[in-house]
Amino acid sequence: MELGGIFLFILLFSISNSELNGDNICTKEVDKTVYVTKKVNQIVQLVTTQACPDFTRGFRCPVKKTGTKVTYKTVPEIKRVIETFCCEGYYEIDGQCKRKF
């Protein structure tokens, strides 16, 4: 199900972000939120055993160690992009800006 949602998002994004061709095209800078996957090192405590002289524990005593675990976190980032649109008095048809009648 998640793959279908990603496909739909990409399809809608590519349709809404289509480039305009020809004259009478204006641009503006827009802040958009994009989601980026970042690598995060997380400190974890590991409990292992090592040989010891304690026969009540089966000669294996617990030892605590700290280590790092790599995890990935999706975080929002705001990026400035340039959006194209038809200038005032024009409308979009088939990727071109046509004059309103």
Structure, explained:
This protein is mainly beta and 101 residues long. It has one domain. It is built from one helix and four strands. The strands form two sheets. It has a two-stranded antiparallel sheet with strand order 1-2. A two-stranded antiparallel ribbon has the order 3-4. A hairpin with a 2-residue loop joins strand 3 and strand 4.
Q: Can I get a quick summary?
A:
Residues 22-99 form the EMI domain. With 101 residues, the chain is mainly beta. It has 1 helix and 4 strands.
List the topology elements:
Layout: H1 2-16, E1 25-51, E2 60-86, E3 90-93, E4 96-99
Antiparallel strand pairs: 1-2, 3-4
What structural keywords apply?
single chain; mainly beta; two-stranded antiparallel sheet; 4 strands
Instruction: Determine Rg (CA atoms, Å).
Output: 28 Å
| Spatial order of the strands forming the largest sheet | 1-2
Average pLDDT for all residues: 83
**Helical fraction:** 10-25%
Order of helices and strands, N to C? HEEEE
Organism: Panagrolaimus davidi
Signal peptide: 1-22
Domain EMI: 22-99
Keywords: Disulfide bond, Signal
